[in-house]
Amino acid sequence: VQLVESGGGLVQPGGSLRLACVASGFTFSRYVLSWYRQAPGKERELVASINNAGGSTNYVDSGKGRFTISRDNAKNTVYLQMNSLKPEDTAVYYCNARWGMDYWGKGTLVTVSS
To answer: What are the tens digits of pLDDT across the range 74-91?
Structure first.
């Protein structure tokens, strides 16, 4: 089982990033997919989640209207489009797959700074 995140990097405040997480080794389409983040000195928090069919999504309050989670079950990939980024969005972003079992990626660092 593997979850591999990509797309992180350094971006200026107000900028955008699109994270991707490619999965392998399990039946991707059955799983609820989520993005979590962990900022330095803080606990990991749920950023966004999407159900197995892609018809239901949830977001952390601070991400509503700025973040969009989506999935492509044919490509075993989940995305997180992040717009209007703020310095407080700086964190390591992790991909999670959950359906009985709970799988995690190793994370991708997002730094929002001028």
So the answer is: 999 999 999 999 999 999
